[in-house]
Write a structure and sequence with these properties.
alpha/beta; Rossmann fold; 8-stranded parallel sheet; two-stranded parallel sheet; 11 helices; about 40% helix; binds NADP nicotinamide-adenine-dinucleotide phosphate
Length: about 350
């Protein structure tokens, strides 16, 4: 077993980076960390990667670098997504030498609409996030003779209690269900929703570092694959988690939302209702559009590492969100009116 002596984890304060750091340290890897903001951990370095020169203490080469920096928003303008997801990667690569074990974290959705990462065309991807993450994978291939690339689906919290260090992206959805921003679930009921626990990712990255750098490019795809939750089961789990928490806290339950297929929504409901919606309602509906593609995936991801069952992970993550976002979780949705 190879134990890297000098490991750098970027994106230390993020959902994934924080869990990876805990796991690496628990496994005995001396780990230095980076983010734009400070945190109270030891060996943490503040660095706006891609915008500033690296602090002297971070000059490489490192034995191992785990690159967790990203901006996971789907709706950034293309140039901003490129700056957020490519420039920090270039900065991380500049700290690596030929013997560095470089681990790049990516997304299962990076294959976009065509099923692979080869196309540089924006049209081959659902959004600027996928497009820039695909460009990031291509950059890792171009710049390094060897590297690990680890793809995974939507990230939920710890297996024990659902805890996450940061709530972003997906957690817009339970918030929107509580405040009434979502009038219907625009989804294929037979669609698959693959999610993963931070613990699964952290354990896999630790295992990769323990086993040493690969001789070439090694791709891991983590998830449940064809055993992922169906969309209906996924939303039932979220609703149950919210309503169990609301019952325990004396708040009226949420009603299940009706399902509408993306085609019905985009061709009929939206064009018809758009003329009657006010500015705020329109903003909410447009924000929701960014997620539609992900609720309509009927072809499972081909995983290389199948993680254990995730229904409980989703349940506890949503409950934990409610506990830590009490005023949002207590909201009572108001019916939509034009
Ligand atoms: N979350 C998901 O559902 C999901 C799903 C699939 C794949 N992934 C992938 O998992 C990886 C980690 O994502 P995440 O969810 O942990 O993201 P996150 O929670 O948004 O965290 C991003 C981290 O990167 C740091 N950061 C961002 N820009 C930086 C910059 N220019 N210089 C230095 N630090 C910077 C942030 O810290 P500061 O804000 O303090 O700088 C934060 O620590 C990414 O590769 C992402 O694409 C995430």
């Amino acid at each position: 077993m190879t134990v890297p002596t000098r490991t750098l984890v970027t994106g230390a304060t993020g959902v994934v980076g924080s869990a990876v750091i805990r796991a690496l340290r628990a496994a005995g890897h001396p780990t230095h960390t980076v983010s734009r903001g400070s945190n109270d951990g030891t060996d943490h370095h503040v660095w706006h990667m891609g915008a500033e020169e690296p602090p002297a203490a971070l000059r490489g080469p490192w034995d191992a670098i785990v690159h967790c920096v990203a901006d996971t928003r789907f709706n950034l303008p293309d140039t901003e997504a490129e700056d957020a997801n490519i420039l920090p990667l270039r900065a991380a690569l500049s700290l690596a030498g030929p013997d560095t074990h470089f681990v790049h974290l990516s997304s299962s959705f990076v294959t976009g609409l065509e099923g692979d990462i080869t196309s540089p065309s924006r049209d081959a991807y659902r959004n600027s996030y996928e497009w820039s993450k695909a460009a990031a994978e291509r950059l890792v291939h171009a710049e390094r003779d060897n590297a690990d690339i680890v793809r995974f689906p939507i990230v939920m919290g710890a297996r024990a209690d659902g805890n996450l260090d940061r709530y972003s992206g997906f957690f817009w959805l339970p918030a929107a269900m509580c405040n009434g921003a979502v009038p219907a679930l625009v989804a294929e009921e037979k669609g698959l929703m693959d999610v993963i626990s931070t613990d699964d990712i952290a354990a896999h990255v630790t295992q990769l570092l323990n086993s040493g750098a690969p001789s070439g490019h090694r791709l891991s795809i983590l998830g449940r694959g064809d055993a992922a939750q169906r969309v209906t089961d996924f939303f039932d789990t979220i609703l149950k988690a919210l309503n169990d928490w609301r019952a325990e806290n004396g708040v009226a339950p949420l009603d299940p939302l009706p399902y509408v297929t993306p085609e019905q929504w985009n061709r009929f409901y939206l064009p018809f209702s758009e003329q009657y919606l006010d500015r705020v309602q329109l903003l909410k509906v447009t924000a929701f559009r960014a997620y539609q593609g992900y609720l309509s995936v009927t072809h499972p991801f081909d995983v290389t590492v199948r993680v254990p069952e995730t229904r409980d992970v989703l349940y506890w993550s949503v409950r934990r969100w409610a506990e830590t976002h009490e005023s949002s979780a207590r909201r009572v949705p108001r019916p939509w009116r034009a």
